[in-house]
Amino acid sequence: MTEGRCLCGALRYQIDGPFIDLLHCHCSMCRKHHGTPFATWAAAPASGFRWIGDTSALASYQSSEKGHRDFCRICGSVAPMVDAASGLVIAPAGNLEGDPGIRPTKHMFVASKARWYAITDDLPQYDEFPPEFGMPATPRVPVAVKPGVAHGSCLCGDVAYEIDGPPLRIYYCHCSRCRLGRSAAHCANAFYKAEGFRWTRGGDQVQDYALPGAQYFGTAFCRRCGSEVPRVSVERNVVSVPAGSLDTDPGMAPNGHIYVDSKAPWFDITDDLPQFAGMPPRR
Ligand SMILES: [Zn+2]
Ligand SMILES: [Zn+2]
Ligand SMILES: [Zn+2]
Is residue 88 pLDDT above 80, yes or no? Predict the structure, then answer.
């Protein structure tokens, strides 16, 4: 049996398993909802899924005619979804505790992949759904671009932002807080100077969650759709941007992996970027 929870702990659940698949999805909806370059989903029979305690923190966003994306309304973590048609529960692997005992089998929606993210493992890649899903592709929406300015938005479109200039640095962080908060293998945070950042839409729709006991750690997400959005620290003059929410290319490759000592057991780092056990050295 595997337990899962959101970052704040308001949503808790158990999945009996066995897990039948673990796959990486690069679709634009996953990238925005999680704020990461890809989401990793674990599938198991729905009959073995149950919530622990009450689910009053559970929110749902209707992302398409048939699809919905569920999340915690307090911390923004992505929540598992029961798919009645397939009889499966689809859970974000970043929120599973311990080792689910299964390893990723494939990448899907690779045709929608973030341009700045490179797939470096040997797993099979599918442009959209793998054939066994028997599902049609989701149409992709083109993005208007202002030269020299980074643009980003949430999944529902209520929240949008712009940032002047290039990022200071981009890190993949494997710490347990980032994995829970982004509901993914790791976060991909692009750091910019806060002075160049502005909301162009829906700044008042952003819900902030500060993790109790943490000096800086928290999440910010769209109240309506739960997508991870930038979190601004005025005092440090830095904005931490979940790179999956960017609609434009950050124009810079990630600088490395941090907190690798806390990495998920089911995820292998296969690229050549520098790895740091904890924080990167100060520059
Ligand atoms: Zn929560
Ligand atoms: Zn997806
Ligand atoms: Zn939204």
Answer: yes
